[in-house]
Task: structure prediction
Amino acid sequence: MQERFSTPVGGVTFRYATRADAPVLLALIRELAEFEHLLDQVAADEATLADELFGARRVAEVLLAEEGDETVAFAVYFHNFSTFVGRAGLYLEDLYVRPHARRRGIGRALICFVARVAVERKCGRFEWSVLDWNTRAIDFYRSIGAVAMDEWTVQRVTGAALERLGSREFPRAT
Result:
């Protein structure tokens, strides 16, 4: 993996995050959660992020955008698989640009970079979710060619419900 990447945004560089970036990554995640009015749902901590993202079994990749010594944005993405397309895809879990760094092309550069990763890896698709009230983001996504998957709704099981579901025995075949 390349260490640093140039960007068309003056003074901003990209780089892949490392284990040492867990504290700044957690701070950015908290900022994003606060923006999305979901701060109460953040359970991540530095140790968990370091283990999950940079341990023996890495579950996602993290790209940081830096201006001087400050991290101003991040993107977290991982592979999924489409049985219909028969190929891997990339799912963008989070993309966040700090408010003072917005409207300068940093978000566009991040999303273009991840799209390039998808193309280079021959992914069949690149997708993400957006909160329905975030009209600025939705307008941006439309401007780059993204289309809403209105006929699909996200389903999620977490916490105690996940524990209950995961502890049930499989039905026996008869």
About this structure: The mean pLDDT is 92. Residues 106-120 form the longest helix (15 residues). Residues 52 and 58 are 6 Å apart (CA to CA).
